[in-house]
Structures are given as C-alpha cells and as structure tokens.
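stuck on this fold:
=====
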Amino acid sequence: MSTLLVSHPAFLDHVTPPGHPERADRLRAVERILEAEKFQTLARELAPLAGVEAALLAHPESHVARIRE
C-alpha cells in the first residue's frame, strides 16, 4: 500500500490572513520536501475542482458569497 497525495496548483493561490497556518507558503515548503528522492514513489493525483456546494460544507454562506463577489 502507498500513500496518496492529492493536490492542485490552484491551492497555491489560496489567500489567508497573515499568520494563518494553512497558507500557500506552508504548501510550498511541503512540496519542496516531497521533491526528495525518497518520496518519488509517493502516489500523486490532481485534485478535482470543487463547486460551491463543497465550499459550503466548510464555510458559512456569507463567506462564500463574499468570495464570489
């Protein structure tokens, strides 16, 4: 069994408030580490584009509406 990494380049465009732990720089740091030879067997898959319904599972409707504007 292998580990699956699901990611998408669009994740790097995610804007969060300063100091937020889930920020693009953190993802870039993880990606740099995963470039090492010992991680080359890691199964990788492109994440699918999610719709508004998926965003509403994690965020209030008012937040999603602000982003869409």
In short: The mean pLDDT is 91. Helices lie at 24-34, 52-58, 61-68.
